[in-house]
Amino acid sequence: MTTGLFTHGACFRHATPPGHPERIERLKAVVEALDGGSLSGLRHFEAARANRASLLAAHDDALVEAIIGAEIPEGEFARIDADTFMSAGSAEAALRAAGAVIQAIDAVMAADVGNAFCAVRPPGHHAERSRAMGFCLFNSVAVGALHARAKHGLERIAVVDFDVHHGNGTQDIFWSDANLFYASTHQFPLYPGTGSRSERGVAGNIVNAPLVPGAGSEEFRTAFDDIVLPALEHFSPQFVLISAGFDAHAADPLASLELREDDFAWATDRLCDIAARHCSSRVVSALEGGYDLHALASSAAAHVQVLLQKSVT
Question: Is 186 one of the annotated active-site residues of the chain?
Answer without folding.
Answer: no
